[in-house]
């Protein structure tokens, strides 16, 4: 299929100018299909989209936090420097995880899970857990604060995938109790510890990851529906019983100012998008961050991006997340290893669900959940955990059979090796000729 498409492209590109519009469109579609079907395409899509999101996020964090640092009498690069350190440290962790064998990742599953659950327990203890913006889900280590709930997502990715892969190997997933136990109770334990701090947004993301794992493992529809019903009922109860969550739910689709200023942030997020227009007001020229748009560098950084970079900037961010999601799905369906499939699917569900919740909140389509935009918003713990997930995806993208063959062929015929072979002396491949026997004297 790919070979036929390539022949078609090579045949049409020589007479591209003379071809009609339909032939040009068909040639372009064949070329795109050929590029997308290459074995290393998911790897480069994940790596390229991640780097672009991190770099653009650093620029927007610096721009959106300028007014806040002046109000607090801080250095103008305060938030930018902290985010840059988190990005560099997360990049190093991503590189290590991308080169780590899959069997080593599975060895680290349970130690990581124990550390995550222990940290969540420490957060729930009064006096240890730090409260920020009404939620107690931080631990102050002196030189920096860490949010264990962000790493609970990474722990669920590896633990859930390893658990389901082991059960599939022993043919235990045919029974419903092995589908749910201990995956659902373990996830509920983490959810309860997170909800003790009031972090509803992270709870929603973990629930989405749980349903993603159940969907990939092939849970029966009735079991899937029953679990979904219980989750919806529990989330509804958690929203109704807390007044400020119910107020946020009422802000969906708001277009007019509220006398009690309940929807102030959601309304000014829409004002930021409206002020941006097609191409934006320019980097640093946004006006909503001058006290009108709270959390412009964290939860509502997408609105600040829409104001300063316009529709072009927001569509670029959406396109990068779409490429990241497509590549993650390609990695999940392109492998025969169940652990790789479940872990890649759960990591992709995490990134995409969190991105959709954040984007929906900024656009007024969902209630404000207080979750950062992955790889983009300010937040050291969120950046570190997201880059760890990306490192795992890169590791899986390199481990597929087609990618291994392509990488081996590329390393064998690399330009560096070819250039060095022209400069360095060649290794002897044959033995030296034996010396001739001495001539006898007559």
TrEMBL record:
<keyword id="KW-0133">Cell shape</keyword>
<feature type="transmembrane region" description="Helical">
    <location>
        <begin position="200"/>
        <end position="217"/>
    </location>
</feature>
<keyword id="KW-0472">Membrane</keyword>
<comment type="function">
    <text>Peptidoglycan polymerase that is essential for cell division.</text>
</comment>
<keyword id="KW-0808">Transferase</keyword>
<dbReference type="InterPro" id="IPR001182">
    <property type="entry name" value="FtsW/RodA"/>
</dbReference>
<feature type="transmembrane region" description="Helical">
    <location>
        <begin position="176"/>
        <end position="194"/>
    </location>
</feature>
<keyword id="KW-0812">Transmembrane</keyword>
<feature type="transmembrane region" description="Helical">
    <location>
        <begin position="309"/>
        <end position="329"/>
    </location>
</feature>
<feature type="transmembrane region" description="Helical">
    <location>
        <begin position="43"/>
        <end position="63"/>
    </location>
</feature>
<keyword id="KW-0328">Glycosyltransferase</keyword>
<keyword id="KW-0131">Cell cycle</keyword>
<keyword id="KW-0961">Cell wall biogenesis/degradation</keyword>
<keyword id="KW-0573">Peptidoglycan synthesis</keyword>
<protein>
    <recommendedName>
        <fullName>Probable peptidoglycan glycosyltransferase FtsW</fullName>
        <ecNumber>2.4.99.28</ecNumber>
    </recommendedName>
</protein>
<dbReference type="InterPro" id="IPR013437">
    <property type="entry name" value="FtsW"/>
</dbReference>
<dbReference type="Pfam" id="PF01098">
    <property type="entry name" value="FTSW_RODA_SPOVE"/>
</dbReference>
<comment type="similarity">
    <text>Belongs to the SEDS family. FtsW subfamily.</text>
</comment>
<comment type="pathway">
    <text>Cell wall biogenesis; peptidoglycan biosynthesis.</text>
</comment>
<feature type="region of interest" description="Disordered">
    <location>
        <begin position="413"/>
        <end position="442"/>
    </location>
</feature>
<feature type="transmembrane region" description="Helical">
    <location>
        <begin position="224"/>
        <end position="242"/>
    </location>
</feature>
<keyword id="KW-1003">Cell membrane</keyword>
<dbReference type="InterPro" id="IPR018365">
    <property type="entry name" value="Cell_cycle_FtsW-rel_CS"/>
</dbReference>
<keyword id="KW-1133">Transmembrane helix</keyword>
<feature type="transmembrane region" description="Helical">
    <location>
        <begin position="108"/>
        <end position="128"/>
    </location>
</feature>
<feature type="transmembrane region" description="Helical">
    <location>
        <begin position="84"/>
        <end position="102"/>
    </location>
</feature>
<keyword id="KW-0132">Cell division</keyword>
<feature type="transmembrane region" description="Helical">
    <location>
        <begin position="375"/>
        <end position="397"/>
    </location>
</feature>
């Amino acid at each position: 299929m790919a070979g036929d498409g390539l022949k078609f492209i090579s045949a049409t590109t020589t007479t591209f100018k003379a071809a009609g519009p339909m032939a040009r469109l068909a040639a372009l579609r064949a070329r795109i299909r050929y590029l997308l079907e290459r074995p290393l395409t998911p790897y480069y899509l994940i790596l390229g989209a991640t780097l672009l999101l991190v770099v653009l996020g650093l620029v927007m964090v610096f721009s959106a936090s300028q007014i806040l640092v002046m109000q607090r009498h801080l250095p103008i690069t305060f938030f930018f420097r902290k985010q840059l350190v988190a990005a560099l440290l997360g990049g190093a962790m991503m590189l290590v995880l991308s080169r780590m064998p899959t069997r080593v990742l599975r060895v680290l599953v349970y130690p990581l899970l124990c550390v995550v659950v222990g940290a969540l327990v420490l957060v729930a203890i009064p006096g240890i857990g730090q409260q920020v913006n009404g939620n107690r889900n931080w631990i102050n280590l002196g030189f920096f604060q860490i949010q264990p709930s962000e790493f609970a997502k990474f722990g669920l990715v590896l633990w859930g995938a390893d658990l389901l892969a082991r059960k599939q190997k022993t043919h235990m997933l045919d029974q419903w109790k092995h589908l749910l136990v201990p995956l659902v109770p373990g996830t509920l334990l983490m959810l309860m510890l997170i909800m003790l701090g009031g972090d509803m947004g992270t709870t929603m993301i973990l629930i989405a990851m749980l349903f993603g794992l159940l969907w990939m493992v092939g849970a029966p529809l009735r079991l899937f529906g029953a679990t979904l019903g219980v989750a919806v009922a529990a989330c509804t109860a958690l929203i109704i019983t807390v007044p400020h969550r119910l107020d946020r739910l009422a802000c969906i689709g708001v277009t007019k100012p509220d006398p009690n200023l309940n929807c102030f942030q959601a309304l000014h997020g829409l004002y930021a998008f409206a002020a941006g227009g097609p191409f934006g007001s320019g980097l640093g020229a946004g006006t909503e961050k001058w006290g009108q748009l709270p959390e412009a560098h964290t939860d509502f950084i997408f609105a600040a991006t829409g104001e300063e970079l316009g529709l072009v900037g927001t569509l670029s961010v959406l396109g990068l997340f779409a490429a990241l999601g497509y590549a993650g799905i390609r990695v999940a369906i392109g492998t025969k290893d169940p652990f790789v499939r479940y872990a890649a699917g759960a990591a992709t569900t995490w990134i995409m669900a969190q991105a959709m919740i954040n984007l929906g909140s900024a656009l007024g389509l969902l209630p404000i959940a207080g979750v950062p935009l992955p790889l983009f918003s300010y937040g050291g713990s969120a950046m570190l955990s997201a880059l760890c997930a990306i490192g795992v995806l890169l590791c899986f993208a390199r481990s597929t059979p087609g990618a291994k063959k392509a990488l081996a062929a590329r390393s064998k015929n690399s330009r560096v090796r070819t250039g060095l072979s022209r400069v360095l002396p060649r290794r002897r491949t044959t033995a030296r000729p034996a010396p001739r026997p001495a001539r006898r004297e007559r």
